[in-house]
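Q: Predict the bound structure with PRP.
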Amino acid sequence: MHKDVERILVTEAQIQGAVQKIADGINRDLNDEPLLVVVILKGSTPFAMDLIRKLNMPVELDFMQVSSYGKSTASSGFINMKKDLERDITGKNILIVEDIIDSGNTLFKIKTLFESRNAKSVRICTMLDKPSRRVVDVEVNYVGIEIPDEFAIGYGLDYNEQYRNLPYIGVLKREVYEH
Ligand code: PRP
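A: Predicted complex:
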């Protein structure tokens, strides 16, 4: 275990089980319809790369990055776009891939944006969900694992851009972020 990790929240085996469960649900629901997978940078990349290899339908991949500034402006619909999608999404089935849902603000804004761009359907999947932190009501179609409100790192999740490469999800020791 990494020296900065207090304890492991989700093991590698549990992660892979959750990825398979989510992929099974998507494969069942889409029933071979083409899917545009939108990866929300940066934290979602390990999950997204594991997930797409388990999807059976024709898959396109695109990336979006939004900044966390303005997270509190949920109702304004404002989104600070750092990197937008490359192509038009009109008429497409979209799957948004997230590593974690906290307040729900980010996903609410992205989903609303995609609907305004006339996507055929917009589904959301997340590896981790912190339901106790939810501020905005957003429908999440596929959830890997619900976790308590603790400082999670690993499998894409960072603190100060570190720990994204850990193969498991752990709780960061308090002494690392409280000095
Ligand atoms: C995290 C996560 C979601 C968002 C969730 O991204 O990947 O996008 O925060 O929080 P919310 O539900 O309260 O909106 P972050 O801004 O940490 O970016 P990163 O993935 O690049 O680390």
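A: The mean pLDDT is 93.
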